[in-house]
Amino acid sequence: MDASWWENRYQTGDMPWDQGAAHPGLLAWLSAHAPVSGLRVLVPGCGLGHDARAWAAAGAHVTALDLAPTALATAQRLPDSDCINWLQGSIFQPPSHLHGTVDLVFEHTCFCAIDPAHRADYVRGVRACLAPGGRLLAIFYLNPGRDQGPPFGVSRDELNRLFRGKFTQIEVTAPARTFPGREDREELRLYAVT
Ligand SMILES: C[S@@+](CC[C@H](N)C(=O)[O-])C[C@H]1O[C@@H](n2cnc3c(N)ncnc32)[C@H](O)[C@@H]1O
Predict the structure, then answer these.
(1) Is the N or the C terminus of the chain less surrounded, counting Cβ atoms within 10 Å?
(2) Rounded to an integer, what distance in angstroms lies between the CA atom of residue 118 and that of residue 174?
(3) Which residues line ligand 1 at a C-beta cut-off of 6 Å?
(4) DSSP 8-state code for residue 49
(5) Which domains does the chain have, with CATH numbers?
(6) In angstroms, what is the span from residue 167 Cα to ligand 1's centroid?
(7) CA–CA dist 147, 160 (Å, integer)
């Protein structure tokens, strides 16, 4: 599942994860937590950018990062994409100009897409991007109900282990809403950098 693997999925239109809309739980969270105007938000593994556009519509300054150039090119052609900074790259080695510049990272279906062997790299990459006081808002796909990934499931214990020491957990809940079929399979977590 390197960049070319993901690129091929977008080139062939084989992207069953794409729901054509922002995560309903994100939209609920934004309604409850507005305004987010001026917040510098990073969306790693943005795909076609539906979540990124939801943040931008709420007033955030958004950087949307993905490995796959075709995902980014397609995303940029969708309406309301002009105000977003689309960036090709990996969250494992985020571009240096992002380091320490992000107020909030929004996670949705990037963590479950990566090889579990790289989860510590993901946590390090997210941490590197965040400014002092920065936060990670994540909707983790705990149990995609598949034998083989991606998407790869994750236990709550593993999440606790991965983020302990680097982040302070502020909130853990179920997303207020989700896509059909994902009910009781996700967890929304809000972390602050320690
Ligand atoms: C399952 S898709 C989800 C896309 C989008 N979040 C959505 O929900 O539609 C996972 C995305 O993460 C991207 N990706 C995988 N590994 C990545 C990495 N290390 N850094 C940045 N993006 C990555 C893939 O190219 C793909 O677009």
Answers:
(1) C
(2) 25
(3) 6, 17-18, 44-47, 65-68, 71, 90-92, 108-110, 113-114
(4) -
(5) 3-193 (3.40.50.150)
(6) 22
(7) 23
Strand partners, 173: 188
pLDDT in tens, the chain (194 residues): 899 999 999 999 999 999 999 999 999 999 999 789 999 999 999 999 999 999 999 999 999 999 999 999 999 999 999 999 999 999 999 999 999 999 999 999 999 999 999 999 999 999 999 999 999 999 999 999 877 889 999 999 999 999 999 999 999 999 999 999 999 999 999 999 99
Q: CA quadruple 89, 94, 100, 106: dihedral positive or negative?
A: positive
Does the predicted TM-score (pTM) go above 0.70? yes
Q: Which atom of ligand 1 is nearest to the CA of 65?
A: 21
